[in-house]
Amino acid sequence: MPDQNRRDALERVADSPLFAGVARGACQEAVDLGRERPIAPGDVLFREGEPAVTLYLVLEGRMKLTQLGVDGQEVVIRFVVPGGVVAALAVLDQGVYPVTATAVTATRALSWSHDVFATLMQRTPALAVNAMRLLSERLREMQQRFREVATERVAQRVARALVRLVRLVGRKTDGGVLIDMPLSRQDLAEMTGTTLYTVSRILSEWESAGLVTSGRERITIRAPHRLVALAEDLPAPPSPTPEG
What is the distance between the terminal CA atoms of the chain, rounded to a whole angstrom? Predict the structure, then answer.
């Protein structure tokens, strides 16, 4: 790994929730023992069902984690941004990968084999605690998603998915808050357990109402507070009125 990439990797590792509270020297050791891997947009890092032998921390880019449902349809589990960890549980229990990981944009990841990461956790107990905390958070997220699919209207689920993405990769622009990664309507359908037709209809209605602007794999939230109200099933805030 070139020196500049190694320095960049150290900063990303030190800022990652997986390494929160871990001493700088231990972070440096993790970088030294890790292997950097570039992934081109659209390339698959690993596939669901393959033996889980490697844990990854995203250094740069965006990744999408998907599963196949019982009907054979793809389901988007979540997106991973820099600092995020991929396949922690599967690697720790030496099972199989429960998801397929695909690069959404040009991505760099730092990887550790099961044995190497187990050694790092033995040397740094805080790392093991953080790994367990992240696994607990993933479990809560999945429980929340199941509850949403079972109890909420589709429009509310789509609004929740967009709110999550705004918090994850939102970037303010003159036109509103841009979800700063390629995002198709099919992705949204796969995130929310519905169809492409339904997502397209909802987004078209929201565009007409001035809530969002969408294009080819680009969505900008023009009225974030109204979107949050939809996600939380709250009364819509009043629309701003022109002065004078």
Answer: 61
